[in-house]
Here is the input.
Amino acid sequence: MMNDDTPKKFDRTVAIFIQLQSKRVVKAQELANRFNVSLRTIYRDIRTLEASGVPIFGEAGTGYSLMEGYRLPPIMFTQEEATSFVAAEKLMQHYVDKGVLDHFSSAIYKIKSVLKSVEKDWVSDLEPQILIHSRNRNLHNEVPNALSSLFVSVSKKRMINMLYQTMEGSRPEMRIVEPLGVFHENKFWYIIAYCHLRNDYRQFRTDRIKSLEILDRPFTLSHPSIGEFLAKREAGDRTKVVLRMNQRLARYLVWQRDNYGFVSEEKVEPDEVRLTFMSKHVNDDFARWYMMFADLADIEEPVSLRERILELAKSAMDRLPSSMRDQTERA
Here is the structure.
């Protein structure tokens, strides 16, 4: 009698084989995390592949790799996997620059070429029925290959010389940087890089890059990964903020609140909730976000945030035409 777990093991073993082809070295823990199984299970699956004649090399503390040149024949994709290509291609059209999009489109054509006829028809019928409306303006034509050039710089550890427009400066500045990595946040692509002009790490927004050149000069420093860098930065001092508001308003904030350090939501009245945040930029980013719904939510703490909101409100009033200020004061 076949063990009930046999189909699951077969699918996992094949998936491990495919993943071994996707990277030069794959760690056992990486496989265990992906398939949510123990390391012992991964070791058994690797032995199963070896027993089937797959030439796998393993080294303690390093990981597993396939013998160079050993590859599977073209893989057949499921209908669900083929569908995911359509969604990915639509998203890429809006969220990457022309350079990366061109490379991705080339890869998609190769993937589509190995689909079965029924999957090709499925994809063709589905493509015009998926639309993504985006007002994303961070993709410009001045440096259409910015992202792909940054990927090369990070991968090969080569310095970049770029002309960059800061928010404060009237003219772009030349910067020689060593990029740690690239990340996307709140509709924009950013890089974290060591800046040789400032002799420190800086964050740059890719849509403000006016020109970019990869230099034939290796990095001069050893850098942390971008994940480690951002985690350390996010672990800095934070301020507790507590807001009280109508439950219906709180539902509208669900998609924004995580950007401002949201921690928890607590029901305090039948139709009221208390939201708790641990925020890093209380008097700037958080305060300006709160102003969007300030007439509908109370600040329970901190007092400094209330004072900051009063400052912003007064500043906004001062910028109104005098006739409107007089009318507001009389009211």
Summary: The chain has a mean pLDDT of 87. Residues 79-129 form one domain. Residues 6-22 form the longest helix (17 residues). The chain is about 45% helix and 25% strand.
